[in-house]
Amino acid sequence: MGQRAYNKLVVFDFAKTLDNGHGWYDGLVDEVESLHANGWKMAIISLSPEAEIGASLQSKMLSCGTPLTKIFDPIAGIKALTAINSGEPNKTTKAVMEHILAVTGIDKEHTVVVGDAFTEQILANNTSTKFLHAGWGDPTKEGLQMGVSSNLLSQEDVDNAHSIQRVSQLQASLEGAFK
Are the C-beta atoms of residues 138 and 16 closer than 8 Å to each other? Predict the structure, then answer.
């Protein structure tokens, strides 16, 4: 069996996007597996500790029995983000995206950031990548509105952010981001 050709990248936030604090959202493991099978590379950026992210990924299995840790690369938790940003735990910088793109080998033009909070939208804005709001964990865009009240995002940014309301819409929304 040859190596899978990846030509698209989705960069996920972890807390509230993949894991709601009580486990993964219903159907999300199946969506991630389908994305992987359809040529998507996947990375994680999060201010959560790497051990917490790793434990969550290790506990979830693909249908073939492979843990999710095998399909997310890189996984940039708080320790990695601090190292990438010279001592500052920040996931919104160009350096973070440059690191992810270098590890994955995917161009930013073929990259989508998916998250529930304003920090992921700022990362996308700072790096000219596409952004999709994980509305299945934040249906009112409260996480994005915090960026407006902190003067880090405009109301127009929030209003224009495409929100994926159901996990089952993830793959179609990602594919649609390139049309």
Answer: yes
For residue 123, give Cα distances in angstroms to 57, 98, 129, 132, 141: 23, 11, 8, 12, 17
CA–CA separation, 134 vs 121, rounded Å? 11
Per-residue pLDDT tens digits for 35-76: 999 999 999 999 999 999 999 999 999 999 999 999 999 999
pTM over 0.85: yes
Q: Residue 24 forms beta bridges with which residues?
A: 19
Is residue 167, in this structure, part of any structural domain at all? yes
Give the CATH number of the domain where residue 55 resides: 3.40.50.1000
The whole-angstrom separation of Cα 162 and Cα 127 is 18
Q: Is residue 142 part of a domain?
A: yes
Number of domains making up the chain: 1
The stretches in the chain having pLDDT less than 70 are 1-5
Q: Is residue 33 part of a domain?
A: yes
Evaluate whether 81 touches 96 at the Cβ level (below 8 Å).
yes
Is residue 3 a part of any domain in this protein?
A: no
What residue has token string 């099978």? 37
Integer distance in angstroms from the first to the last C-alpha of the chain? 31
